[in-house]
Sequence to fold (361 residues):
Amino acid sequence: MVLDSKTRPGTGCAMADAAHDLFKQTVRSEAELHPRFRLLRDRAEFAPARGLVSELHGSEIRDMRPDYFAYLQGRDFDDALFELFLFALFKAAGHRIDLKHEAPAFLLAKASTTAAVDAFTVGTPVTGAEGQATSPRLAVPEPQAHGLGGILFRRLHQQRWRAPHADGHPFVFAIQDFDHRLAHGAPSALLHFLFGGPGQLQELGDLFPDGFFGHQDAEHVSGVLFCNDATIAKFNRLGQEEHAASAARMLRHGACLAEDGDASTPACYAYEVGQRGAQREQWNEGTVLIHNPFALHPLPPDWLGASAEMTCQDGQAAKCIAHGFHPFSSTTELLREDTPAWWVEERKRLLEQEQAAHPPA
Fold:
């Protein structure tokens, strides 16, 4: 796949002339390369993702983060890919981005607001079945939230909002959660953990009745950006939509927010990537920003660029405002480039039948 020098819509990023420089110029020995970096570099069906990663890196990341080569190729591959995802998401939302600081890595500016974003990943991804941020409804929480909660408290104790470039500005934790790729209950558990209340896990409720946001020093955290789609599959789909000629075809299917906005009854979707005309997948699809009601420096609504935003006011349940297509779950099936059109249509029909027979809970 050859990329030209035009600009990718929605990112403002100039496309790289040499698409695979990031993957040819390895700064580590083969044994030291991260397994998922080698997967992304070597497999023909991930050519769209390679092109898009190289394009984004060549636009501004290369100058802001000269060490990004080593960052992406080594043990921090998942964190590096998440930062690239966030860069594209924030760029599409119209932010001016400063990545020249150590921690927190992102300093964003738009209109009259400047905010710092501290990004980290949780868990291990599974290539090919990546999930999305799930339904905003409050359901029975799951014990898996303990791990994420522990990490949030450790990050809280680091007090990165005190960094000179972040001091006095809104401060956001951005989480890429690989542990809950497909589970619908994970964000509900996270909501109970963040906001507290009787719906929380009993032991957490005893320790933190006001939730994480009510904990000492948490007023410095303006919100939590939840995501579980900063994956190779995401980059592959968006790269495929921009450059249809590739070594693979893709089917994407899952559950999404219904058109009437009722999160209690999700709808189903199935489509071939790159075959929806002018309708393109957006970087922010499935991302959820959870506002801290006690924040010392609140974020303006609709400022960060998330697909949905959630709040908790006067003890009321969290509210969600979703913008555009908001998937709850997502599975990407890779097909050979020479897969017959009739087979693709038949597979879509079978997926739609299966989804109708077993609607998402």
